[in-house]
Recover the amino acids of this structure.
């Protein structure tokens, strides 16, 4: 029996997206920039996908969707695309719990002379809007706060933070990779100027993503070339990947009404079944939380015999896939900077685990995982 509970790392490509991609690879393989019939058929496919992805976040203008190779490139385009507009270093604000696709570009800008403010978070991993207001400076040009934190599941007060940014005429970006398809997003009412998306988090394939750019917001491209994607992302579009992304986005838009409450019930069921384990502490906000996300840290982790990575390995031997914190950091035995920013000790942070649920997860899966996890912990703590 195998159970996959790492949907925050990646989701299996759904059959509808695969069928669309296969048809394009074999029949509609033209270059979308070509003027002949083959190229124009491919261009039509890309524009259809653009409308489907725009629908996922209720973007009225499909041209506000810029296709990228994934969420990381979308984040980099947002951060560096704003920074490259300025000849002189300015001031930027990010949170202390950003994905590395934000924190690393910010670190690079800091080396180039930019002033970077990293907003603190509370024990739940939440940014206080008061802290954002206090951090603003006359030369603040960009604020970036992650929408849903991938390691601890906390959903930030993006509406309030975005309103603060807008009231000060500062560009606001959010990484919505974990939120899209799981919680409704409406960029018509949400005060965000830039928003990152990823195909493989919503059952599309890996290798496609998008950055929403509110009409009127200027960005400098990172890649020079043929000027594809509204001159913001040169390079021949990956038509099959983009088409699969579009199909996945449209289906996610249709299914969110039923899938989100189903995931919340399963999430809460798993939390409840693991609640009696001594020293296993839930991480993140338990109310403002991603609907599919379950995360803990072990207070008595030692980083050697007992750590998040140990638990991942033992669960894997039992046929269950979970994560030790974020997948991007799973190869490193070092405490999660996210948990450290939230006030956890290094040892507790080394005991971080994440179980993330998805379309294939059932209540029977949740019950089995809880039982196996308890047995493994009992063996490891004897």
């Amino acid at each position: 029996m195998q159970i996959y509970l790492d949907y925050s790392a990646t989701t299996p490509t759904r059959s509808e997206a695969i069928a669309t991609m296969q048809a394009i690879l074999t029949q509609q393989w033209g270059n979308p920039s070509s003027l002949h019939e083959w190229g124009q058929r491919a261009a039509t496919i890309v524009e259809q996908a653009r409308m489907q992805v725009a629908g996922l976040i209720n973007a009225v203008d499909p041209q506000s969707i810029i296709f990228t190779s994934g969420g990381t490139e979308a984040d980099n385009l947002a951060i560096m695309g704003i920074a490259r507009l300025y000849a002189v270093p300015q001031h930027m604000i990010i949170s202390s719990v950003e994905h590395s696709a934000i924190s690393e570009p910010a670190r690079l800008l800091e080396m180039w002379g930019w002033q970077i403010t990293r907003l603190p978070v509370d024990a739940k991993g939440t940014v206080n809007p008061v802290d954002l207001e206090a951090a603003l400076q006359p030369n603040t040009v960009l604020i970036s706060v992650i929408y849903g934190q991938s390691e601890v599941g906390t959903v930030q007060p993006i509406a309030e933070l975005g309103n603060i940014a807008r009231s000060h005429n500062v560009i606001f970006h959010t990484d919505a990779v974990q939120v899209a398809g799981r919680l409704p997003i409406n960029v018509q009412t949400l005060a965000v100027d830039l928003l990152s998306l990823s195909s493989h988090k919503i059952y599309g394939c890996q290798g496609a993503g998008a950055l929403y750019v509110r009409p009127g917001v200027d960005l400098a491209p990172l890649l020079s070339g043929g000027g594809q994607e509204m001159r913001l992302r040169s390079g021949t579009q990956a038509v099959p990947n983009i088409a699969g992304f579009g199909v996945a986005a449209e289906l996610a838009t249709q299914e969110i009404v039923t899938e989100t409450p189903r995931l919340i019930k399963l999430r809460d069921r798993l939390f409840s079944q693991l609640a009696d384990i001594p020293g296993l502490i839930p991480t993140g906000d338990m109310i403002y939380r991603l609907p599919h996300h379950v995360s803990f840290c072990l207070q008595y982790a030692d980083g050697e015999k007992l750590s998040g990575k140990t638990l991942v390995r033992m669960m894997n031997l039992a046929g269950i896939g979970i994560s030790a914190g974020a997948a991007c950091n799973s190869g490193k035995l070092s405490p999660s900077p996210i948990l450290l920013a939230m006030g956890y000790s290094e040892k507790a942070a080394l005991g971080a685990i994440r179980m993330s649920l998805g379309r294939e997860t059932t209540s029977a899966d949740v019950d089995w995982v809880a039982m196996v996890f308890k047995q493994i912990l009992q063996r490891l703590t004897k």
